[in-house]
Write a structure and sequence with these properties.
There is one protein chain. Strands 1-2-3-4-5-6-7-8 form an 8-stranded parallel beta barrel, surrounded by 9 helices. The protein starts with 9 loop residues before the first helix and ends in a 10-residue tail after the last helix. α6 packs parallel to α7, α12 crosses α13 and α13 crosses α14. The longest helix has 17 residues. β7, α9 and β8 form a beta-alpha-beta unit. The radius of gyration is 25 Å and the shape is elongated. It has 15 helices and 11 strands. It folds into 2 domains: 270 residues, Alpha-Beta Barrel (TIM Barrel), CATH 3.20.20.70; 99 residues, no CATH class. It is of the alpha/beta class. The chain binds 3-hydroxy-3-carboxy-adipic acid and copper (II) ion. The site of 3-hydroxy-3-carboxy-adipic acid (HCA) has 13 residues, from β4, β5 and β6.
Length: 406
């Protein structure tokens, strides 16, 4: 899909697709709110909440939903019930690379199992306390066990970004030969830069038969690069990235579902049928469940994501919000607001006067703008501005606004 030249995002799109055809292949989403998300301090759901979240994620349109049945009997119960719902998304049971864990997943009725094992030297020595060779034997035994049970599976090369490439490739080839459907390449500690993640995923991609085994990327956000890194991994050949609602996860988490979904749809132009208008509700639901407010500045779903404040911005927004918005708030279930205060300027002031049915001449607008500054009270008032009707009031107002002079 290419944008028309009168679209405000047209040139940005050209830079983004320099030399490419502007249509990326479909990138899938695995959402791990129920597994990685619950690893965030303070996050823990009830069985009912887990089921509700799974339904919402499924109707939003993610491809896979990950949950760990091995954490507790309650998690096993939730996994079992969610699998029974017959959702469209695959339900992926996440377990350690241990046969008894896989048995728990099987008991829950899982058809998709993801096992993980740390394969960097530090994980092998400090966590597993075995040798590389023993780690490999253990991983392959579990892979064979999973295949013998006719399950679809993913193997996660935990701490892949800090693993000796020769060993990583050796392990990936073994899994590939066994017909393991997916390999996850995580940046478990969030150490990568986008180009590094690209190189890592490309290396694995070039060394396996991806018609048999596709690649997932799972990137941690320790330095704030998780989504950028995950997208770079997809550019290098991964076809699925991992998210959680609002980015919850171990420490600082992984990419947020909302940011990933909008990046894929709007910026990467990856064809999908995600119901983006559910994003704000998904975020609100989780915030309620965990009793943690969504930070106002959070992209896409935060309350300030579509607030406009500076006078120059207000002047433009009141005529055409595309001047400062790349996607309309209602598309992602959010709402636009304008903030009135000392920064509002005379265009903002004129609009406020028009809403109140007062005179909106140049003089009145300037007086109010000055008054707002002199109050020294910062932001005084916020108003929704989400439909044409409200802007029509402005357009019908007698005062001729001139943004160039603002
Ligand atoms: C963990 C490990 C993991 C696994 C990722 C995956 C990671 O927290 O137990 O299975 O794709 O970050 O490496 O989340
Ligand atoms: Cu993780």
């Amino acid at each position: 899909m290419s944008l028309k030249s009168d679209d405000p995002n047209y040139y940005a799109h050209k830079y983004n697709w320099n030399g490419e055809n502007g249509q990326s292949r479909r990138i899938k989403i695995l959402d791990s709110t129920l597994r990685e998300g619950e690893q965030h301090p303070g996050v823990s759901f009830t069985i009912k909440q887990r089921i509700q979240i799974a339904w919402m994620l499924d109707s939003f349109g993610v491809d896979q939903i990950e949950i760990s049945p091995v954490v507790s009997p309650d998690h096993a119960e939730a996994t079992k019930t969610i699998i029974k719902q017959g959702l469209r998304a695959d339900i992926v049971a996440h377990t350690r690379a241990i046969k008894s864990d896989v048995d728990i997943a099987i008991d829950c009725g899982a058809t998709w199992v993801a096992t993980y094992m740390g394969i960097s030297d530090i994980h092998i020595s400090a966590k597993l306390k075995i040798t590389r060779e023993e780690a490999k034997i253990r991983a392959l035994e579990v892979a064979d066990y999973i295949k013998a049970h006719g399950l679809k599976s993913r193997f996660t090369m935990e701490d892949a970004s800090r693993t000796d490439p020769a060993f990583l490739i050796e392990m990936c080839k073994e899994m590939n030969n066994r017909g393991i459907e997916k390999i996850s390449i995580p940046d478990t500690v969030g150490i990568m830069r986008p180009r590094g993640m690209y190189n890592l995923v490309k290396m694995v991609h070039d060394n396996i038969d991806t018609s048999k085994t596709s690649l997932d990327v799972h990137c941690h956000n320790d330095v704030g690069l998780a989504l950028a890194n995950a997208l770079a991994g997809c550019e290098a050949g991964a076809d699925q990235l991992h998210t959680t609602i609002d980015g919850f996860g171990e420490r600082t988490g992984i990419p947020s579902l909302a940011e990933a979904a909008v990046a894929l749809t709007l910026i990467y132009r990856s064809s999908n049928d995600l119901r983006l208008h559910m994003l704000k509700d998904l975020s609100r639901t989780i915030a309620e469940y965990v009793s943690m407010p969504v930070p106002e500045s959070k992209p896409i779903v935060g309350d300030s994501a579509y607030k406009h404040k500076a006078g120059t911005h207000l002047a433009a927004i009141l005529r055409n919000p595309a001047a400062y918005e790349i996607i309309e708030p209602k598309i992602v279930g959010n709402r636009r607001k304008i903030v009135f205060g000392e920064l509002a300027g005379k265009n903002g002031a004129a609009y406020l006067l028009s809403l109140l049915g007062l005179e909106t001449g140049k003089h009145e607008a300037e007086t109010l703008a000055r008054g707002l500054k002199e109050l020294r009270m910062g932001d005084i008032l916020e108003l929704y501005l989400d439909d044409r009707l409200e802007r029509k009031i402005l357009n019908d107002a007698p005062v001729k606004l001139n943004p160039a002079k603002e």
